[in-house]
Amino acid sequence: MNEITMKLNADRLIMQALEEDITSEDITTNAVMREKQMGEVQLLCKQDGVLAGLWVFERVFQLLDPETEAQFYVKDGDKVKAGQLAGVVRGDIRVLLSGERTALNFLQRMSGIATYTHQIAELLKGSRTRLLDTRKTTPNMRIFEKYAVKTGGGYNHRYNLSDGILLKDNHIAAAGSVKKAVEMAREYAPFVRKIEVETENLDMVREALEAGADIIMLDNMTPEMMKEAVDLIQGRAQTECSGNVTRENIDKVLSLGVDYISCGALTHSAPILDLSLKNLHQI
């Protein structure tokens, strides 16, 4: 998920967020600011972290008024410190006031994800294991949250259900067995698609291997069981560790030699990065 893709898809979602916040008017702003008046406001960092979503932040104001301009002193992926001035936004004060919360909601959420992702990605440095996100995203925020993961140093798993084959426990139950599920997926899917199978024990790992799965997910296994599974697979399929992986426990799987670690916490549990628009004044 890169900035070009974001720009192709983001406007509709940003407008929905604005419409959620401004159903008919911003009654408070219209009460205190009756006419257009140009102004400037500062974007301040209140915590240390990694920024992500500056373009989205700016775009909120531009959709309200194309003449709004933002000047940033940092870029996406940069580390910032508490108290740092990240940029200024200039435009009609009515637009600055009405767009403030929506713009900050996007930037704080995305920067929080980038910050948390960066913290975990740093723990993987020096290993061959890659950090992946999941589809455990906020509804209608996936494009922004997955972009934030990449900005923080992680990698994107499949974007949506059309993007890849992942045979989970209920798919396997519906098909009748791991072997049958893989056979049906290989028959149905284009040959360019890899097939991933979620496994919960060593018997399922063996069955997935025999069926020719391309990627085997080791889901909610103990570190000891995952080690046995990796030794059993011996590079015949790529391996992905999944299930309640967080910053606090990731060290337990680092030495196992898995190819990927998927972490739903990147998007469903990352706290926001505290940012603020302050010192609004007329210009």
Automatic annotation (TrEMBL):
Pathway: Cofactor biosynthesis; NAD(+) biosynthesis; nicotinate D-ribonucleotide from quinolinate: step 1/1. GO terms for molecular function: nicotinate-nucleotide diphosphorylase (carboxylating) activity. GO terms for biological process: NAD+ biosynthetic process; quinolinate catabolic process. It catalyses: nicotinate beta-D-ribonucleotide + CO2 + diphosphate = quinolinate + 5-phospho-alpha-D-ribose 1-diphosphate + 2 H(+). It comes from the Bacteria. Residues 26-111 form the Quinolinate phosphoribosyl transferase N-terminal domain. Keywords: Glycosyltransferase, Pyridine nucleotide biosynthesis, Transferase. Its EC number is 2.4.2.19. The keyword ATP-binding does not apply. Gene3D superfamilies: Aldolase class I, Quinolinate phosphoribosyl transferase, N-terminal domain. GO terms for cellular component: cytoplasm. The keyword rRNA processing does not apply. Residues 113-278 form the Quinolinate phosphoribosyl transferase C-terminal domain. PANTHER family: NICOTINATE-NUCLEOTIDE PYROPHOSPHORYLASE [CARBOXYLATING] (PTHR32179:SF3). Belongs to the NadC/ModD family. Hexamer formed by 3 homodimers. NCBIfam families: nadC. Involved in the catabolism of quinolinic acid (QA). This is Probable nicotinate-nucleotide pyrophosphorylase [carboxylating]. The gene is nadC.
